[in-house]
Amino acid sequence: MANTYTQLYVQIVVAVRGRDHVIQGEHKDEIQKVMTGIVSHLGSKMISINNMPDHFHLLVGLKLATSVSELAGKVKSGSAKFIQEKRWIGGHFEGQEGFGAFSYSRSQLPAVVRYIENQETHHRRAPRALSPMTSPKTRLNHTEREGICVSARPSLNPPASSCRSKRLSA
Fold first, then answer.
1. How close are the terminal C-alpha atoms of the chain, in Å?
2. Tell me: the pLDDT tens digits for 110-165?
């Protein structure tokens, strides 16, 4: 499409089935390279990636022709196939059904990148990991703590929030 310009930034969160802690630290870089290759192959750009033993965070500059569902599905299936072929875990490896996806403006990217890069510290602080299916109120409070302002319930007249006044600076 000539003369088309988009700026679509999406954080995708995918989890291991049952939130089992099976992604070992020594395999982290290799799995992340595979996921980055899948994103690149689809014409999108990996901005930031990190994972914990039970889930992955990807911040992607999304290509207009690729849907979020298509990207998440291909990352999940491709990385699961790779992990199966490597036989890093005993038994069958698979991701949790579904995924979380959150869109951001360009001005929010530095805060989101920091959040993704600091997953280890974040999860040391919080004993219970937040899943993409966490309640909207918990998710809103969680993101406010991390300095990322999002609305858990988009509307034309969103309620006033202390998060609105916070500046998202790098």
1. 34
2. 999 999 998 877 677 655 544 444 444 444 444 444 555 444 444 334 444 444 43
Domains present along the chain, CATH in parentheses: 9-165 (3.30.70.1290)
What is the C-alpha separation between 99 and 71, in angstroms, rounded?
Answer: 11
CA atoms within 13 A on the CB side of 113: 15
**Are the C-beta atoms of residues 131 and 15 closer than 8 Å to each other?**
yes
Q: Could you tell me the two tokens for 64?
A: 């207009």
| Percent helix / strand / coil, the chain, rounded to 5 | 40, 15, 40
pLDDT at position 131, please?
45
Tokens of 97: 């059904």
